[in-house]
């Protein structure tokens, strides 16, 4: 949107020079006309900007509909997941959620971007290795990173709580545990349905719970 | 354009790309048409290069090594031609497909500077399987800086190459299929096994079951060892140690690393000692390294329980839990290893050998309480 601001000032600057150049008689009338046409021009520029953003995103392969669908799947851990949603490795949502987590931690006063990245990287590698060993079909590291990143969304909610009140009391610890359970349940649900492993949901949920527990440690303490 | 330092076949070399003005005069129509870049083996590129086993990206003109290069090491070829350029550039001088190249081909290749780890690649004469990207770039859409494009493509190809090298090295040391056997678990097995580790006294049948001389995976046989529980228990122990130290206000990330590496070193020592004992006692069994690793990793469950009890109930609770889990673990190990050491074809063996095996298992079992105490007492002080 900063670009839009630039457009704004540019527009107004050019408006001023045009105003200077044309020797118009009635100042207020000229201003009224210019403001009207200025609004239309502004709307047009805005629409062109949004359209170009849309083309850019589709060129980059960012599909907002899929991102929204996956987010909804995460937010409802009790609904059985569709196995095919993880077919394309989409890292946009996860990166967005990681940055959101870092931002909310920053708002809470903890500058811990490095820890977030480090834990994510190591945790992704570990769970990728474990899933490759436990499942009959292997997974790629990108798929694991994508699923883990999407299921980080409840943790963002927890850290946004941490901005307003401290989580070090009993309520905070209980809510942290609930959020960890939520994250790991949805992550294991997606992994189970994507990799077709039966009878192993709790076994997958446990390492995911450890992984998200590290994030919760960052958030709470 | 500036001269750029890039890795070449004999090390970093400086290449001076020449602006495309000279390009047009030196290209034939095929090469000009293949200026659209694609990361795929491109026949036009191969034709332009004049030999079938030229691996390269679709960009027929690229920064090529000087004419004097002969035997390129295979590692050098791959990422070398991974350079995807936004702007067609060429090296000074025309490229002669004949001449020095073919002479060099007749002579035996000089010993390659690197191992040819691109196993899949060398089997395909004309192709370089792209690292998962079948993308066609349009010249206009790339970043304005062609050096950045080159760096990006080079970096991605190096990354994929590194990944394959890691895989190959890993497969040389660790047989992934054998390892997968130990992770073929399910929730019911893990629950029952954890119960068995805490209370093994009522379990009757300790024999590992076989089907046609192949041991059954842990899913179907409760007595089979697995590596899921030890791994998870180890990680949980490390995290729990961090938490316990944090509660006592003695936490720092270095201490966590210290705890983790201490535990790991003790596991390694124990597994090596057991391997040595198994070797000396010439036990003819199928107790591989992973089996021993699994059995020595089961103590972490006892450690976690002791630490938890110690944190909740204080020092007395810790000692009670330590005593209980140690005795349970000792019983478990002795019963399991005695039947496991015999193997599927349980020939009696000579009496001294059997005694030796017994001493080995008893020694391993007696070692457990000591190490559990050593690794956990400082957490519940």
Report on this structure.
The complex is a heterodimer of chains A (221) and B (381). Chain A has 221 residues and is an all-alpha fold. Chain A has a domain of 129 residues. Chain A contains nine helices and no strands. Chain A starts with a helix and ends with a helix. By secondary structure, chain B is mostly helical. Among the domains of chain B are: 34 residues; 204 residues, no CATH class. In chain B, the strands form three sheets. Chain B has a two-stranded antiparallel sheet with strand order 1-2. A two-stranded antiparallel sheet of chain B has the order 3-4. In chain B, strand 1 and strand 2 form a beta hairpin. Classes of the chains: A mainly alpha (221), B mainly alpha (381). At the A-B interface, helix 5 and helix 9 of A face helix 8, helix 9 and helix 10 of B.
Keywords for this structure?
heterodimer; A: 221 residues; mainly alpha; B: 381 residues; two-stranded antiparallel ribbon; 14 helices; globular; transmembrane (chain A); transmembrane helix (chain A); Yip1/4-like (chain A); Protein YIPF (chain A)
Low-confidence stretches of chain B: 19-28, 30-46, 48-106, 119-138
The succession of helices and strands of chain B, N to C, reads EEHHEHHHHEHHHEEHHHHH
Which consecutive residue ranges of chain A, at least 5 long each, have pLDDT under 50? none
DSSP summary, beta strand count of chain B: 6
Please tally the helical runs of chain B, counting DSSP H or I stretches of 4 or more residues. 14
| Helix content class of chain B | 55-70%
Family (chain B): Belongs to the YIF1 family.
Main location (chain B): endoplasmic reticulum
Region (Disordered) (chain B): 97-121
Protein name (chain B): Protein YIF1
């Amino acid at each position: 949107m900063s670009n839009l601001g630039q457009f704004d000032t540019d527009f107004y600057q050019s408006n001023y020079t045009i105003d200077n150049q044309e020797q118009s008689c009635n100042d207020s009338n000229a201003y009224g006309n210019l403001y009207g046409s200025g609004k239309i021009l502004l709307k047009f520029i805005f629409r062109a900007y949004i359209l170009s953003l849309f083309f850019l995103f589709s060129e980059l392969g960012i599909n907002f509909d899929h991102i929204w669908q996956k987010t909804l799947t995460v937010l409802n851990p009790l609904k059985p997941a569709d196995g095919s949603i993880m077919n394309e490795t989409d890292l946009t949502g996860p990166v967005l959620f990681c940055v959101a987590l870092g931002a909310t931690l920053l708002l809470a006063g903890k500058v811990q971007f490095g820890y977030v990245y480090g834990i994510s990287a190591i945790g992704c590698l570990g769970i990728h290795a474990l899933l490759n060993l436990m499942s009959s079909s292997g997974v790629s590291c990108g798929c694991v990173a994508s699923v883990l990143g999407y299921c980080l969304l409840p943790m963002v909610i927890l850290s946004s709580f941490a901005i307003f009140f401290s989580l070090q009391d009993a309520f905070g610890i209980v809510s942290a545990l609930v959020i960890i359970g939520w994250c790991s349940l949805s992550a294991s649900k997606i992994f189970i349905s994507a990799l077709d492993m039966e009878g192993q949901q709790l076994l997958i949920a446990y390492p995911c719970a450890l992984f998200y527990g590290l994030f919760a440690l960052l958030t709470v303490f | 354009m500036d001269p750029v330092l890039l890795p070449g076949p004999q090390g970093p070399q400086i290449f001076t790309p020449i602006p495309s003005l000279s390009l047009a005069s030196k290209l034939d129509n095929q090469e000009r048409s293949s200026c659209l870049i694609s990361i795929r083996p491109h026949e036009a590129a191969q034709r332009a290069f004049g030999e079938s086993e030229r691996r390269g990206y679709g960009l027929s003109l690229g920064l090529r090594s000087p004419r004097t290069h002969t035997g390129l090491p295979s590692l050098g070829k791959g990422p070398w031609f991974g350079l995807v350029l936004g702007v067609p550039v060429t090296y000074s001088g025309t490229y002669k497909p004949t001449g020095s190249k073919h002479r060099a081909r007749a002579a035996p290749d000089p010993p390659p500077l690197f191992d040819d780890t691109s196993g899949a690649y060398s089997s395909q004469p004309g192709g370089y399987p792209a690292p998962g990207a079948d993308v066609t770039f349009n010249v206009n859409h790339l970043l304005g800086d062609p050096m950045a494009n080159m760096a990006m493509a080079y970096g991605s190809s190096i990354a994929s190459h590194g990944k394959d090298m890691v895989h190959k090295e890993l497969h040389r040391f660790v047989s992934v299929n054998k390892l997968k056997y130990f992770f073929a678990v399910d929730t019911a097995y893990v629950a029952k096994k954890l119960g068995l580790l805490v209370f093994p006294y009522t379990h009757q049948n300790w024999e590992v079951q076989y089907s046609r001389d192949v041991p059954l995976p842990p899913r179907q046989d409760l007595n089979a060892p697995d590596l899921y529980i030890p791994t998870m228990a180890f990680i949980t122990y490390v995290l729990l140690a961090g938490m316990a130290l944090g509660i006592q206000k003695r936490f720092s990330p270095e201490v966590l690393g210290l705890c983790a590496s201490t535990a790991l070193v003790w596991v390694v020592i124990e597994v090596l000692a057991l391997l040595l004992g198994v070797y000396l006692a010439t036990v003819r069994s199928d107790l591989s390294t992973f089996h021993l690793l699994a059995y020595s990793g089961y103590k972490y469950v006892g450690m976690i329980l002791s630490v938890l009890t110690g944190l909740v109930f204080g020092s007395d609770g810790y000692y009670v839990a330590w005593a209980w889990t140690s005795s349970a673990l000792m019983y478990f190990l002795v019963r399991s290893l005695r039947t496991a050491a015999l193997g599927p074809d349980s020939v009696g063996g000579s009496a001294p050998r059997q005694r030796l095996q017994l001493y080995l298992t008893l020694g391993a079992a007696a070692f457990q309480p000591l190490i559990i105490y050593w690794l956990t007492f400082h957490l519940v002080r």
